[in-house]
Amino acid sequence: MILNDLGALQNSPVLEELAVKSLFDPDPAAAIDAANYLGRYGSPDAEQALWNRYEAWSREWTGRAAELRLVPAGKNPHLRDANLGQSLPWSLSSGTAWLSDESKLRRIQALGVGANIQRETEQALQAWLRRPLTIAYIPTTPPSFTVAQYNQTSLDSLKKKLAQFPSGTKFVLTLSSPTPSPAEQKVREEIFQFAQKDGITVMVRPGS
Question: Of 7, 22, 173, 183, which one is least surrounded by beta carbons within 10 A?
């Protein structure tokens, strides 16, 4: 997990270039590290590299789902290949630097091999299709949020993700309590102010 560890400390174009090359490393563990890194820290350009690798993985394993299935207490020679098949769609559907809408999620699902990818992508798709889209406030320290299929670990990362949605998109904000704390109220006002500037609509769910 060296790329992800380095990315958490300080991201750089050099790391992204290395990650893109590592996607096709013969060692699936290195490719998994690269896919996870590009999903978390990659630039918008990294999305196409992930699609290229996912399409290649899909071509290799289509019709061979049984070989990827985990056998408890048995031999699993393709365990890392299966894990790579989980990491690539996860990185594409939840990537930080791009927005995966319905068409992309359906493409991810169509390329998926195995029940796990189908199930997880369907969950992401259902979260995307729910309208209006929900922003859920989670009162952790610092606060975190979910929006559609995305988990955002800070208010700043939430704003960056909201900015990727088309202008005019409608959201409903749910808070942790009908009587929000001063901290929650401050977060709500900051989200509203950001939405106004960005051209999106954020409403508060009644009772939240």
Answer: 183
Alpha carbon 137 to chain centroid distance?
A: 17
Long-range CB contacts (within 8 A, 24+) of 69-75: 69/114
Helix residue ranges per DSSP H, the chain = 2-9, 13-22, 28-41, 46-61, 65-68, 79-94, 102-111, 115-129, 155-162, 182-198
Residue 135 makes CB contacts below 8 A (sequence gap 6+) with 145, 146, 147, 158, 162, 171, 172, 173, 174, 191, 202
pLDDT tens, residue by residue, 147-177 = 999 999 999 999 999 999 999 999 999 877 7
Contact 107, 62 (CB under 8 A): no
Spell out the domain ranges in the chain. 2-128, 130-204
Q: Please tell me whether the overall predicted TM-score, pTM, comes out greater than 0.70 for this model.
A: yes
